């Protein structure tokens, strides 16, 4: 673990050397959160992206929603929802899921404008997602395309945590078990009808608080390193 | 700090609509206007408490109001007894309230719980912005109760008035006073003084065009420097709210209250037939009980009296619906019972001849306390001068029997415990009464405790008041500062516990009964009455009425002024609920009772009732502690 973390700091510094200015330079200049930080002291950004599909090379980010957790409390005043405009039509099959129409997307801003603010919000913090492949890969792809350098951040993935909890209890995992909205009822969390980037980010944040309190009944034992997925 | 920028984001509201909608359904947030509601999701913090966690979360830096999004929390007292259970939508405001009950409450999540929290500082902002919201968060339960009582009295119940109260056409005393709309202000004013009225309606032919009142003359003419020679139209109120002649008096009162007016033109279809004033309504209310008392005095036969008492439920109903406080309703009914009793005694004396020796007829229980309702039973006793000879027994027996029978015929049924003057035990000379009380006070036993609610609340109704005063002085001198007696009375006062666990949202503490109804008299009113009696006897206070006892006790060291006022408000609220409940039963032609079903109560009423019950519980716990610690002297 220590090795991996060190290498992530190394990757950050290496990436920083590739960009001399701009939002990603600012972002990469900020040291990553130390894995020894106590949960109580962590600033975690729960993030969700809506995309046109699953392939970061081909598909586009349509919106992001985020909300911060500080002192293991979700601070709704920090919540943010941003639509992103794209220069193509939204595929129908994805519109069914995220319910973002072309008209709505048109009110958004281009990714080139949205990314700096997103990076600013994430700098020096921990990213919380459910199924990290999407968020990490899409932001990474956007950073590489726009700034020519990768996106580095410590990630907590509630899907990975759920899988670990299932495995520790020797529960067989069935299809759908690990989906965000199937995990929530296990922790007595309410059903949210809405499905957008912000409400999903909030749903993920709540799930994380529930899982953390299950894993660490004594908050003092709770440390970032215990959650890191990579 | 770059958070400012994110605050200004406009797109936030839609995504958090779920949280807003959740809050919008629940009191107290349900009264917030849209824009305030929309603010809420932006300032909320969310936290998660695993089952077994402490509540409120101990590590909080500031104070919050908590709302349960899901899960359950139990609040416990020092002895880990369950005080209250919060479920989904439950709101915990204690940390934001300035006045604490002084009861160390700790809480525990009994299920995994998702909590919303709002800083008290923001709560304050919302309260300032929205008066209706503020009402729910008044700094102390005392204020909340006061306001709840006021609302109960203000609102009455629209439906419960139907068919019952008088139609306003019966209240109109004068033909309508009208002037032509083309008159000058002076002409209209002259007409008003000539006819001695406070308002005049202005007619455009057959049509009502407007009206002016004394106040309009004052404010819109004299004070505004408008010449009296100007046309009356320059100061008149047009677009008048009117009422139809068959409107019920109480509805008219509500209309006036709502519109903040004192005058309402009364119409028969489209024609003006009169003007109803607030004074007319007020006169109607008071004359009703005054009429009843007059009829009692004029009654010549038992049948006359029985006929009058038939109207008592009606009086109670009207009073309940006319913004009278529960206190006043109790007083009104009790004073009519007093009149009935006096008239019955007079009729008996006419028949039996004058009494051979002085005596005083005493009432006990709710009549003595001035807290009767129209269906109370009778409690009374005869205190006779020590000059009484054995041969006088027959006279007083006949007198007592006749009065008791008479009261029974007037629907004040015989006391089930036989605490009546017709029982020879309670028809005794002063010396015997003194012995009774000596025994009860010095050797309190269960029997004494049972009788205490009747005979420790005594009041003279008719006859030689000096006799009563002598007995009362004797009683109070023996009970004042009497630790052992007080301890017994206090333990008796703890017999009846408020049903804090009655409602689904808060769980039972003292008994496991989940009845369909609860007895609001024995679970809500009797506990306060008992508490007040303990204080009054312990301090040697003369008042018998519970409210007066509490206020008098609050002037002594035995009861804090704040707690005294809390108890008074709690009593008024609970008694109002009872009176309204009975008014509704009377309206439906049912026999009024004390059994309230939870379905009858609104969310708000439950909350206030819970507050009232908590006041009682706090007081009972304080008494329990003092009594056990022997500090009650």
Any chance you could write out the topology, listing elements then pairs?
The complex is a heterodimer of chains A (230) and B (633).
Chain A: H1 2-18, H2 23-29, E1 43-51, E2 61-70, E3 73-83, H3 92-98, H4 102-106, H5 111-122, E4 126-129, H6 132-147, E5 155-157, H7 158-168, H8 180-183, H9 197-215
Parallel strand pairs in A: 1-4, 4-5
Antiparallel strand pairs in A: 1-2, 2-3
Helix pairs in contact in A: 1-2, 2-5
Chain B: H1 3-7, H2 12-15, H3 17-24, H4 34-43, E1 45-49, E2 54-55, E3 64-70, E4 73-76, E5 82-86, E6 91-92, E7 106-109, E8 113-119, H5 120-129, H6 131-136, H7 141-155, H8 158-161, E9 178-180, H9 185-195, E10 199-204, E11 207-213, H10 214-222, E12 243-244, H11 249-259, E13 263-268, E14 271-277, H12 278-298, H13 302-310, H14 312-320, H15 326-352, E15 359-364, H16 365-369, E16 380-384, H17 393-409, E17 427-429, H18 430-442, H19 446-455, E18 458-463, H20 465-479, H21 483-493, E19 518-519, H22 520-539, H23 546-553, H24 561-587, E20 595-596, H25 603-629
Parallel strand pairs in B: 9-10, 12-13, 16-17
Antiparallel strand pairs in B: 1-8, 2-7, 3-6, 3-8, 4-5, 4-7, 10-11, 13-14, 15-16, 15-18, 19-20
Helix pairs in contact in B: 3-4, 7-24, 7-25, 12-14, 12-15, 14-15, 14-24, 15-17, 18-20, 21-22, 21-25, 22-23, 22-24, 22-25, 23-24, 24-25
Features:
heterodimer, A: 230 residues, alpha/beta, globular, B: 633 residues, alpha+beta, Jelly Rolls, Beta Polymerase, domain 2, 3 domains, four-stranded antiparallel sheet, 20 strands, 49% helix, flat, disordered N terminus, disordered C terminus
């Amino acid at each position: 673990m220590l090795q991996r973390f060190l290498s992530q700091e190394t990757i950050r510094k290496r990436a920083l050397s590739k960009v001399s200015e701009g939002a990603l330079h600012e972002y990469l200049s900020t040291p990553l959160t130390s894995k020894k930080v106590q949960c109580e002291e962590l600033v975690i950004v729960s993030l969700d992206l809506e995309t046109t599909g699953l392939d970061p090379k081909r598909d586009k980010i349509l919106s992001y929603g985020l909300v911060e957790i500080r002192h293991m409390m979700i601070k709704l005043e920090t919540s943010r929802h941003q639509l992103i405009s794209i220069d193509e039509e939204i595929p129908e099959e994805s519109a069914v899921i995220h319910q973002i129409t072309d008209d709505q997307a048109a009110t958004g801003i281009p990714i080139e404008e949205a990314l700096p603010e997103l990076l600013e919000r994430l700098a020096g913090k921990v990213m919380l997602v459910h199924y990290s492949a999407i968020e990490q890969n899409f932001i990474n792809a956007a950073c590489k395309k726009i700034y020519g350098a990768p996106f580095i951040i410590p990630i907590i993935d509630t899907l990975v945590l759920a899988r670990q909890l299932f495995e520790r209890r020797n529960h067989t995992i069935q299809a759908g078990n690990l989906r965000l909205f199937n995990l929530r009822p296990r922790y007595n969390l309410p059903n949210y009808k809405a499905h957008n980037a912000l409400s999903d980010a909030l749903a993920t944040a709540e799930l994380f608080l529930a899982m953390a309190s299950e894993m660490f009944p004594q908050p003092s034992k709770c440390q970032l390193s215990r959650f890191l997925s990579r | 700090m770059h958070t400012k920028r994110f605050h200004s984001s406009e797109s936030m509201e839609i995504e958090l609509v779920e949280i807003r909608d959740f809050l919008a359904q629940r009191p107290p947030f349900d009264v917030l206007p849209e824009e305030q509601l929309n603010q809420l999701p932006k300032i909320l913090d969310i936290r998660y408490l695993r089952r077994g966690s402490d509540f409120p979360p101990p590590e909080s830096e500031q104070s919050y109001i908590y709302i349960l999004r899901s899960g359950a929390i139990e609040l416990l007292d020092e002895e880990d007894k369950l005080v209250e259970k919060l479920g989904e939508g439950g709101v915990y405001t204690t940390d934001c309230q300035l006045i604490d009950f002084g009861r160390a409450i700790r809480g525990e999540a009994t299920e995994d719980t998702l909590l919303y929290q709002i800083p008290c500082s923001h709560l304050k902002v919302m309260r300032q912005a929205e008066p209706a919201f503020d009402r729910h968060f008044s700094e102390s339960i005392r204020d909340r109760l006061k306001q709840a009582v006021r609302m109960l009295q203000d609102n009455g119940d629209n439906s419960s008035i139907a068919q019952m109260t008088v139609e306003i056409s019966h209240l109109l005393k004068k033909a309508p006073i009208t002037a032509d709309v083309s008159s000058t202000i002076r002409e209209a004013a002259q007409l008003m003084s000539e006819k001695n009225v406070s308002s005049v309606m202005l007619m455009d032919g057959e049509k009502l065009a407007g009206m002016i009142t004394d106040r309009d003359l004052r404010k819109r003419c004299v004070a505004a420097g408008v010449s009296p020679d100007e046309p009356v139209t320059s100061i008149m109120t047009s677009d008048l709210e009117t009422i139809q002649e068959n409107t019920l008096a109480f509805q008219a009162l509500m209309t006036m209250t709502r519109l903040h007016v004192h005058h309402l033109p009364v119409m028969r279809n489209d024609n003006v037939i009169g003007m109803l004033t607030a004074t007319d309504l007020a006169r109607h209310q008071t004359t009703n009980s005054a009429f009843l008392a007059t009829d009692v005095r004029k009654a010549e036969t038992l049948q006359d009296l029985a006929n009058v008492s038939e109207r008592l439920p009606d009086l109670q109903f009207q009073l309940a619906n006319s913004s009278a406080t529960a206190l006043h309703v109790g007083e009104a009914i009790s004073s009519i019972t007093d009149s009935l009793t006096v008239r019955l005694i007079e009729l008996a004396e006419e028949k039996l001849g004058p009494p051979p020796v002085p005596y005083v007829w005493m009432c006990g229980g709710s009549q003595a306390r001035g807290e009767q309702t129209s269906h109370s039973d009778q409690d009374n006793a005869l205190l006779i001068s020590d000059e009484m000879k054995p041969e006088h027994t027959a006279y007083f027996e006949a007198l007592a029997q006749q009065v008791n029978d008479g009261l029974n015929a007037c629907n004040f049924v015989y006391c089930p415990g036989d605490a009546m003057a017709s029982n020879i035990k309670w028809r005794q000379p002063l010396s015997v009464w003194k012995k009774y009380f000596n025994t009860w006070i010095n050797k309190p036993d269960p029997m004494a405790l049972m009788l205490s609610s009747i005979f420790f609340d005594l009041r003279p109704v008719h006859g030689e008041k000096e006799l009563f005063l002598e007995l009362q002085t004797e009683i109070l001198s023996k009970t004042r500062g009497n630790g052992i007696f007080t301890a017994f009375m206090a333990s008796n006062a703890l017999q009846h516990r408020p049903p804090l666990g009655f409602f689904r949202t808060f769980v039972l503490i003292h008994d496991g009964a989940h009845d369909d109804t609860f007895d609001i008299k024995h679970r809500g009113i009797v506990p306060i009455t008992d508490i007040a009696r303990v204080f009054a006897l312990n301090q040697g206070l003369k008042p018998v009425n519970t409210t007066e006892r509490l206020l008098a006790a609050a002037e002594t060291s035995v009861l804090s002024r704040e707690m005294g006022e809390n108890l008074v408000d709690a009593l008024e609220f609970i008694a109002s609920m009872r009176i309204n409940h009975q008014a509704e039963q009377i309206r439906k032609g049912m026999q009024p009772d004390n059994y309230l079903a939870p379905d009858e109560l609104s969310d708000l009423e439950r909350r206030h009732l819970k507050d009232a019950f908590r006041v009682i519980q706090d007081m009972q716990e304080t008494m329990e502690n003092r009594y056990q610690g022997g500090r009650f002297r």
